[in-house]
Amino acid sequence: MERRNMFNNNTFLASKDQELTVGHLYTVEDYFTFNIKVRSGEFAGSSNFCMPKEKVISIVENSYKMLETLEGCCEVKDYDSDAYIVIQMGKLGHMCIYGQIGGSHEDHSMKFKYTADQTVLANFSQMLKALL
User: Fold this and answer.
1) Which among 61, 101, 109, 132 counts the fewest CB atoms within 10 Å?
2) Is 93 in a helix, a strand, or coil?
3) DSSP of 9-74, one letter per residue?
4) pTM for the structure as a whole
5) Sheet holding 94-101, edge to edge
6) Domain extents for the chain?
7) CA 3, CA 26: separation in Å to the nearest integer?
8) pLDDT tens, 44-67?
9) CA dist., res. 1 & res. 132, Å (int)
10) Using an 8 Å Cβ cutoff, are 70 and 77 in contact?
């Protein structure tokens, strides 16, 4: 069993009322585990997301296509719970980022929704690509 630890945190969205931070915790065999932190207003939460390498590759490919065409949608889904993040391209490169941090079976979970520009997706894609 191969286990690689990275522990890098990348903040992709940061403002007075919003924050989205993704950190790669470790990779075991072909499964990546990330810690995703979200802050929306006075609410905040974090959740670990586990995904197989094939899904990470698919997210990278899909996000680069979205950046090229300025349309489409990309979903980051935890394989151990129903936590998810959707990145949806809107008009003129604006994006809607929404999802749920923490599984609905857990004591706490949080739904959120942001509006951002395409640089968030570009930086997120570059981080994932660097892990492959």
Assistant:
1) 132
2) helix
3) EEEEEESSSEEEEEEEEEEETTEEEEEEEEEETTEEEEEEEEEEHHHHHHHHHHHHHHHHHT--EE
4) 0.86
5) 73-77, 84-89, 94-101, 110-117
6) 10-131
7) 7
8) 999 999 999 999 999 999 999 999
9) 17
10) no
Residue type, 78: D
Chain mean position to CA 29:
20
Q: Half-sphere exposure of 41 toward its Cβ, with a 13 Å CA cutoff?
A: 5
- Token look-up 């979903």 returns 75
Contact assessment for residue 20 and residue 34, using Cβ atoms and an 8 Å cutoff: no
- Position 14: which residue type? A
Tens digits of residue pLDDT in 83-100: 999 999 988 878 999 999
| Correct CATH for 10-131 of 1.10.220.10, 1.10.3720.10, 2.30.31.10, 3.30.565.10 | 2.30.31.10
Tell me which DSSP letter residue 87 carries: E
- Nearest alpha-carbon partner for 97 in 70, 71, 81, 115: 115
Give dist(CA 94, CA 37) in Å, integer: 21
